[in-house]
Amino acid sequence: MKRVRIVLADDHPVVRSGLRGLLDTMDGIEVVAEAGTGQEAIDAVRGQRPDVVIMDLQMPDLDGITATRLIVAENPGIAVLVFTMFEDDDTVFAAMQAGARGYLLKGALPRDVERAIEAITNGEAIFGAAVAERIRARLGRGRAESAAAPFSELTDRERQILDLVATGANNVSIGAELHISTKTVANHVSNILVKLRAADRPEIIVRARRAGLGEP
Question: In this model, does residue 51 exceed pLDDT 50?
Answer without folding.
Answer: yes
